[in-house]
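Form 12-C: Joint structure prediction
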Amino acid sequence: STIVLIFEAPNDFDFKIENSKKIKFGEAVGT
Amino acid sequence: VNTAVSKKSRWRRLGLPAGAGLALYGGYRQFFYVEKEEIKLAKNWHVTLYRKMPLKAISRLWGRFNDLHLPVFLRHPLLSIYVWMFGCNLSEAEIEDLKHYRNLGEFFRRQLKSHVRPIDDAHSLTSPADGKILHHGQVKNGVVEQVKGVTYSLRGFLGPAWQRTRHGEDINHLSDKEYQERLGVKPGHRLYHTIIYLAPGDYHRFHSPTQWSIQHRRHFPGELLSVSPGVARWVQGLFNFNERVVYSGTWEHGFFSMTAVGATNVGSIKIYCDEELTTNNSRKQPHGTYFDKSFSNPISFNKGEMFGEFNLG
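Section 2 - Result
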C-alpha cells in the first residue's frame, strides 16, 4: 500500500527526506 | 628485517597499479549498476495482461481467509512466520504477545506503543506512515514522478478538480499542464508531492501529516496491482490504475491532499472519519470511474492524529 501527499507550499519549501530511504510515522518530511 | 623492508617496498610499488585496478573495477561495477538501473518500462500488452488478472477477487478471498479465527495454539507459530518473513518489529507493537491476535488481519492492523513514534514539532509536514520514500519533489506540468523517470498524470490521479466541477466546468479537455495551472496554486507557491510505500511488515495505520481540514473525498474503485518499488519502476501510471481514496482540503499554505492507494491483497482501506467508505467491492467499474463526497462541515485534523488503516482484503 502507498500514501501519496500532493500539496501546495511556498517556493522555498524545504524537504528533509531522501528518495529510497525509510521513514517512520511522525518524522519530518519538510518545512 | 631485510626481507620485511623489501616486502614493504614491493607492496608500495604495487600500490599504484593495485589502486588503479580497483578504481577500474569500481568504474566497471558502477557502469553495470547504472546499466541495471536503466528504466525498462512494461509494454502496453504487459500492462493490459497484468490488469486483466483477477487481483481484486484474489485479494477479497485473501482478506476473508485472514479474518478466520485461528485456534490459540496456532497463533504464535503461524504469525511468527509472518513476523520473521517481513521483519516486523514486535517490540514496538502495543500488544507483543502474538497469541492475542486472532488472525493475520488483526496483526496486520496492530497498533504501536504510544511513545515509539514521537511527532516532530519543528517541521510543518511529517510522515503519515512508516514506509519508504518512493519519490518526492515538485509537480511539473501536471505530471508526477512515481520513481525517478517514471511518471503518472496528476489529472488522472486526482480527477477533475472538485471545486470547479461543482460549478459545472468540464476540464477534461485540458492538457496536463493546463490542468495543473487551473488548480489555482497561489503566486510564489508550487505544487509538491511525496510518495510513501508501506512494505508488508510495516505498521499499516496512517496518521494526519499536518494540521489541515478535509473538504472532499474522491474514491476511485480501480485495480489492485502491486505498488512495490519494482512494479512502480516497471508500470508507467501505476497509481492511476489502482483503487485509491483521495482526501482533499486545505492547510496553512493552500491546497492539501492525502491519498491512500490500495495494493494486491491490501485493498481494504478504512478511514476513521468516513464510515460510508467501502473499498474493494465486487462490482466491476469502468476505468476512471469515481465517487465523490463533500464534507459540508470540513473535518479538522491535527498533526499525528490517527486517520485510517490498510487491511488485508
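Section 3 - Comments
The interface with chain B takes residues 1-11, 13, 15-31 of chain A (CB under 8 Å). The first strand of chain A starts at residue 2 and ends at 10.
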